[in-house]
Amino acid sequence: MKKKSWLILLLSAMLVLSACGSGSGDESKEGKDGGLKLGLVTDTGGINDESFNQTAWEGMKQAEKELGAEVKYLESNKDSDYIPNLTKLIRGDYDLTWGIGFKFEEAMRDISDQFPDAKLGIVDTNMGGNIPDNVVAVTFKEHEGSFLMGVIAGATTKTDKVGFIGGIESELIKKFEAGYRAGVHAVNPDAEVKVAYAASFTDTAKGRSLAKSMYNDNTDVIYHAAGGVGKGLFSEVKTREQGKFWAIGVDMDQSSLAPNHTLSSMIKKVDVAVYDVAASLDKGTFEGGKEVVLGLEDDAVGIATTSNKNTPDDVLKKVDEYRNKIIDGEVKVPATIEELEEFMK
């Protein structure tokens, strides 16, 4: 009797183990119609930041449409959410998980060590040149696109005072500042560029306060590279006299925030990069441990197609001239403040 009971228990255990291993592993990794599962974690700006988080999500939705991928995002309310959110997606068997923004650098390094078999992507940092083997790092030549915004500002200003509002002061945002100031100087060396940092990417009120101060000081064009802070710029410029005060957006076409007061936006095609990496994974050609650098020559940065609404044709012609000079190597755009100082000599 004891022997029979033991055999029954053994058979039951074998059935349980067999059931646990029957197909659940591979199937959990499949998206729609057996496609990829792609995850994205935003920084604290959120998915509707009218900036790079939102643009990255557009790339994910393109992968959903064209690759049949299952896509999901998790929003981070604070920096300490980065690791838990990345971990949740990886443990959910997502084939590729993105951290959007340079603020993910430390979290991405920790996660890549913890989950060496996971495939990961990060935007806006090359992780100090030491990219883990399971991570692809996408960076952009924001200074090149920002140079074109500087050309627009410098050629449009009537007061010879233009402004730049940055988010958190960092090497990345300094690239925007350096390129912008170089573009202004190239077409209007007499113009003064006022610079202010909000120490935030989410404080809309601070963005509006900084813009108000600049406009009150006779600055008539302001470009921002500040994420959600930039929404404050657009809120403020709408209160100003139409045709005299202007804003310039960043990352995506932000003209809808102030249609009659926006000259242009520096487009940064994070969506294209996110989709292309997903497509490489779908084709089996994903390569981790590398940096993908995209600029004007890749059509990965540039100006919004709506720029012709408020920007004069002669100014847009200057933009085209400088775009070609940059691509051809005739103009080397500074990416740091030190390089800017040399450029302005």
Short description:
The chain has 345 residues and is α/β, with parallel strands linked by helices.
Output the strand order for the largest sheet: 2-1-3-4-5-11
Mean pLDDT: 91
State Rg.
24 Å
The total of helices stands at: 12
Helix content: 40-55%
Secondary-structure element order, N to C: HHEHEHEHEEHEHEHEHEEHEEHH
Number of strands: 12
Low-confidence stretches: 1-30
Structural class: alpha/beta
- The geometry reads as globular
The major pleated sheet works out as: 6 strands, parallel
Measured distance between first and last alpha carbons: 97 Å
Proportion of residues in extended strands: 15-25%
Oligomerization status of the protein chains: single chain
List the helices and strands and how they pair.
Blueprint: H1 2-20, H2 24-28, E1 37-41, H3 52-67, E2 70-74, H4 82-91, E3 96-100, H5 105-114, E4 120-123, E5 135-140, H6 142-156, E6 161-166, H7 171-187, E7 192-197, H8 204-216, E8 221-225, H9 230-237, E9 246-251, E10 262-268, H10 270-283, E11 290-294, E12 301-303, H11 313-328, H12 337-344
Helix pairs in contact: 3-10, 4-5, 6-7, 6-11, 7-12, 8-9
